[in-house]
Amino acid sequence: MGFCRFICCISLLCFSVVSLADERLQRAKKMLYQQVSLIALVKPNSEFDQHKVVLTQASVKSDAIQQIETDIQAFWQSKQIPINNAAVNKLDDPFIRALALEPQLAGYLQVQNRIRHLMWLAEQDWWQPIQLSQLIRPGKQDPIIADVVKRLWLLGDIENSASESTILDSSVANALKRFQLRHGLKPDAVIGPETMKWLNILPAERASILANNFVQRAEFMAQREERFLVINIPAFEMELFNEGRVELASKVIVGKPYRPTPLLSSSISNVVINPSWRVPKKILYNDLLPQVRKDGNYIAERNFDVYDRDDNRMQRTAEQWSDLAKGPFPYRFVQRPGLNNTLGRYKFYFPNDFSVYLHDTSDPELFERSNRALSSGCIRVQNVEGLANWMAANLVKDKQTWVDRHRDRTRTQWFALNAKLNVHLVYWTAWMDDSNQAQFRNDIYQMHSQPQVQDHESAQINDL
Fold first, then answer.
1. pTM, 2 dp
2. Interval 439-452 mean pLDDT
3. Domain residue spans in the chain?
4. Is residue 144 within 8 Å of residue 196, measured between CB atoms?
5. Which UniProt keywords apply (predicted)?
6. pLDDT tens by residue, 208-260
7. Radius of gyration of the chain (CA)
């Protein structure tokens, strides 16, 4: 009896060890599958699509697991993104190896969870196009409201989808505002073409946009210095990073789609206080001369000086300027510094081949718009005083001279900084915010493929 009991205990122990090992392998496969799913969105039609198939099989050979691990590690290395433990192949436990392969990225788990949810939604037959025939304002009734509520619920913008109401009531309006804010739209709770376009975007496309932008941003951040300024063009936002945290943020205005702000990296070494504005030819011919044709007083009212090709200042009456603007115009405009100068109080200069820079503005009300692709390529900064003050505190030694050069509002002063501030103009259309909410923005310069919707016509409404 005692021997039989001993044999039974040994068998149970062996079974427990095998069961534990199998459980850890299954957990490892799930973790690897989540990583592979994210990478497959970034590298479609690659070996990672096949890895997804392998990891769903009931039995997977150890050499197949090792190949998947090798490919995951190589992917993150190619992006210069560190993983938890680079010595993965020295670890015996497959679950620990899967943990070791995860990238050292803030928000990685949140992004992974959101992508998993979106891919689950993509497997369901729920994303049929919602057809919009007219603008729907708060308080109005429309048969599609129930479908809109369900979609808002699936995307996490409303808690309860049980109501079959067809009225855009206050709870639906609040959810729509949250949705619109997450997509860079005006939060007015009005269902129009742009709101409906984003509601109809397929979950798989959302997952792809989020994954690609997450990896792009992670790759960018992994190669950055301790202190830098970054302007995300589609988000119309500026952030100043210092030792890994944001010390200053601001809304910005960027270039129009037909005059885009370029993507570049440079360094701010000089601040121009009370800048004058040498008007670029394109802006002169496209924007200013049409105003002068209407009214020659425009030149004097906006404090412009006009120069010929030999830098001689030209003097003409308002009527003469209006007539001259109707034909060939061999002159250039320079706007004097002052309160109504287009560049405002500050110009932050950084060398580049596109003649763009950061500056103040004389039209601060434009920052209240949701779509701020309004400039001719340069970047206008709302919190320009905050940026100037930060530079004065951190990059200026002779602070008295800095103060002195602010006294005369009509005099242009160049001020060289004691240290440079690197600046990067980037293009990210999706990210996870500090509240674990997925943020999406329009591809304003059509740099990526257009988001897919079930029915393109659903976003095209005539006579709205």
1. 0.86
2. 83
3. 11-104, 124-205+440-459, 227-431
4. no
5. Cell shape, Cell wall biogenesis/degradation, Peptidoglycan synthesis, Signal, Transferase
6. 999 999 999 999 999 888 899 999 999 999 999 998 899 999 999 999 999 99
7. 29
How would residue 3 be classed by pLDDT, with cut points 50, 70 and 90? very low
What is each CA distance from 345 to 45, 153, 170, 257, 427, in whole angstroms? 51, 46, 43, 26, 27
| CATH class label, 227-431 | mainly beta
Joined together, the tokens standing for residue 62 give: 């150890």
To the nearest 10°, report the CA torsion of 285, 291, 292, 293: 90
Distance CA 252, CA 348 (A): 14
Q: Which residues are catalytic?
A: 359, 378
Helices marked H in 143-263:
145-154, 170-182, 193-200, 203-222
| DSSP-derived 3-state class of residue 412 | coil
CA distance 271 to 268: 8
Q: 236-258: string of b/e by CB count within 10 Å (b at 16+)? A: bbbbbbeeeeeebebbbbbbeee
- Note the pLDDT of residue 455: 40
Asked whether 307 and 372 are in contact (CB, 8 A), the reply is no
Average pLDDT for 431-436: 93
Separation in Å, CA 110 to CA 74, 155, 219, 389? 23, 15, 17, 35
Alpha carbon distance 83, 453 (integer Å): 35
Query: Rounded to an integer, what distance in angstroms lies between the CA atom of residue 26 and that of residue 58?
Result: 9
Cα(430)–Cα(451) distance, integer angstroms: 12
CA distance 73 to 98: 10
The total number of residues written for the chain in this structure: 464
CA 44 vs CA 161, 186, 274, 290: distances in Å: 34, 33, 50, 49
Write the pLDDT tens digit of every residue in 102-133: 999 989 999 999 999 999 999 998 999 999 99
